[in-house]
């Protein structure tokens, strides 16, 4: 018998051959689907039951799978038993376990029973809901769910279908940014002419997600017109409205045309928050489109005590967050609201003869194909609907608050240990920390370390640079050592020249005991690394 956790399946060749033939008599036979479906559900349930047995970060080497799998596809059918055995033996070792309770890297990709089952329903129906007629329920449920969620976030009514705006489910924030940027581009070019595309300028901070730069390239924005506003540690890496205005003013004086500002609530590196109100005020003076990217932090804003982080959103043109990050809805599910849906549809609409129908021509329905890049689209609203109904607003708030509480616990551990420091204030459930410079320098002795320690001018630029490099190197070693152990998984960033470790709480299975154990792992590895530095003579 083979096994996956507590789940066992037969390995008899005769049984496997029978199962293989039966499963292929009709690839959608209901009873065979029922049989195999139960097996896959059991497999996944056991995977979650035993997930802590696996190293969080996959330990395989590049190219490992090619050595394990055949060089060509099978000619004859194989059974689900055989395939699941190979999943366990060959695929699971190559997975980084994002749903592990010991996963604290990047941002969460939180799942839930409701999210998974909603995904199953959507996949089971397998509709291609590009317009209303292709599946009315898919379109109408999406519009309803987006208004529900907008109300939970207390978005201005101008973003909702119940106002003059509306919401759409995109795949990712990358798509949401590109769609809104294209709408902003075309809105301006309709006024100044397509020949002037080379004059268009877009703006963001040095903490903005790299997706924006890619979107600008795809949208045809001159790379020389991509403006990045510097941020500093003193302002917790949020964008400065005054610096933005100065940059825009210089561009206008040079004959350029500002069209788009991307502001962020919860940046990737440090979860910094840009001041939406003042930034929107600047953009308004120049007729610019403002998009608010709250991919990570938007979820927590359903909690009243966190809603202030998106104050000023009323001045923006569009707003998005990823329900697949921290809202217990499986990938992919990006929620995008716009004040002026016609701006999207004017840029993204297609109207071939084979898609013409009376419902579309009535102007009484939404055709979501015209709100996105692709024609085909998935029934994403079904899983979001299940999440909202299965847990309700209050329980969802409770889940999110528990993650923030656990992050506070970890932050308390960091602050209580004089070898560590919190680098930037924690806004949500991500703690940015490092081994402190003083802890590193107190251990230094000869060579460059001694030069820094014994320098008569500790404030000199060379001393500062060398010292920062040493501290960064020690923290990089700490992160690599921790992740190499497989016990927990964290990621890093470099901001203002500072190498920091990011401890992002948000995996659905994480409990406070996992946070406590994670801190023990951090301490153990830090102790070993600091003790490997020769002590000062």
Automatic annotation (TrEMBL):
First and last residue of the signal peptide: none
Keyword annotations of the record: Decarboxylase, Lyase, Pyridoxal phosphate
GO CC list: cytoplasm
GO molecular function, a single term: pyridoxal phosphate binding
BP-aspect Gene Ontology terms: amino acid metabolic process; carboxylic acid metabolic process
PROSITE patterns: DDC_GAD_HDC_YDC
Cofactor names: pyridoxal 5'-phosphate
Residues the record lists as N6-(pyridoxal phosphate)lysine modifications: 325
Cross-referenced InterPro entries: Aromatic_deC, PyrdxlP-dep_de-COase, PyrdxlP-dep_Trfase, PyrdxlP-dep_Trfase_major, PyrdxlP-dep_Trfase_small, Pyridoxal-P_BS
Similarity annotation: Belongs to the group II decarboxylase family.
Protein name: Tyrosine decarboxylase
Organism of derivation: Cannabis sativa
């Amino acid at each position: 018998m083979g096994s996956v956790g507590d789940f066992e399946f037969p390995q008899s060749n005769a049984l496997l051959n029978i199962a293989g033939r039966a499963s292929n008599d009709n690839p959608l036979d209901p009873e065979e689907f029922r049989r195999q479906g139960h097996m896959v559900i059991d497999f996944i349930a056991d995977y979650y039951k035993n997930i802590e047995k696996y190293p969080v970060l996959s330990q395989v080497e590049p190219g490992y799978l090619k050595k394990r799998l055949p060089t060509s596809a099978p000619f004859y059918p194989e059974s689900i038993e055989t395939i699941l055995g190979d999943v366990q033996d060959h695929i699971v070792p190559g997975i980084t376990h994002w749903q592990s309770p010991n996963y604290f890297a990047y941002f969460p990709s939180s799942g839930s029973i409701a999210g998974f089952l909603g995904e199953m329903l959507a996949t089971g129906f397998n509709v291609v809901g590009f317009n209303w007629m292709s599946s009315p329920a898919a379109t109408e449920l999406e519009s309803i769910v987006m208004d529900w969620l907008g109300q939970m976030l207390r978005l201005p009514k101008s973003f909702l279908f119940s106002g003059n705006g509306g919401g759409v489910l995109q795949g990712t924030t990358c798509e949401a940014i590109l769609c809104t940027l294209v709408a902003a581009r075309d809105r301006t070019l309709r006024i100044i002419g397509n020949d002037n595309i080379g004059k268009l300028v877009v703006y963001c901070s040095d903490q903005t997600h790299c997706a924006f730069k890619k979107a600008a390239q795809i949208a045809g924005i001159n790379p020389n017109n991509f403006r990045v506003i510097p941020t500093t540690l003193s302002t917790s890496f949020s964008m400065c409205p005054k610096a933005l205005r100065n940059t825009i003013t210089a561009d206008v004086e040079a004959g350029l045309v500002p069209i788009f500002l991307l502001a962020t609530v919860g940046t990737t590196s440090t979860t910094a928050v840009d001041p939406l109100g003042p930034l929107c005020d600047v953009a308004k003076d120049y007729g610019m489109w403002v998009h608010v990217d709250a991919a990570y932090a938007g979820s927590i804003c359903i909690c009243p005590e966190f809603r202030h982080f998106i104050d000023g959103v009323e001045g923006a043109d569009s707003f998005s967050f990823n329900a697949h990050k921290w809202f217990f809805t499986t990938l992919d599910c990006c929620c995008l609201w716009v004040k002026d849906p016609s701006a999207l549809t004017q840029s993204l609409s297609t109207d071939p003869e084979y898609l013409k129908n009376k419902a579309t021509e009535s102007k009484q329905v939404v055709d979501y194909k015209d709100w996105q890049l692709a024609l085909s689209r998935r029934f994403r609203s079904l899983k979001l609907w299940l999440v909202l109904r299965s847990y309700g607003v209050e329980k969802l708030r409770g889940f999110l608050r528990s993650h923030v509480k656990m992050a506070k616990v970890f932050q308390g551990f960091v602050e209580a240990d004089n070898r560590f420091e919190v680098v930037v204030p924690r806004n949500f459930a991500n703690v940015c920390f490092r081994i402190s410079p003083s802890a590193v320098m107190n251990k230094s002795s000869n060579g460059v370390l001694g030069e820094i320690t014994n320098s008569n001018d500790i404030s000199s630029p060379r001393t500062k640079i060398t010292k920062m490099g040493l501290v960064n190197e020690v923290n990089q070693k700490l992160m690599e050592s921790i992740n190499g152990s497989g016990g927990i998984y964290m990621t890093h960033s470099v901001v203002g020249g500072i190498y920091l470790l990011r401890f992002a709480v948000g995996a659905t299975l994480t409990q406070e005991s996992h946070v406590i154990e994670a801190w023990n792992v951090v301490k153990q590895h830090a102790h070993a690394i600091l003790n490997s530095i020769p002590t000062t003579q």
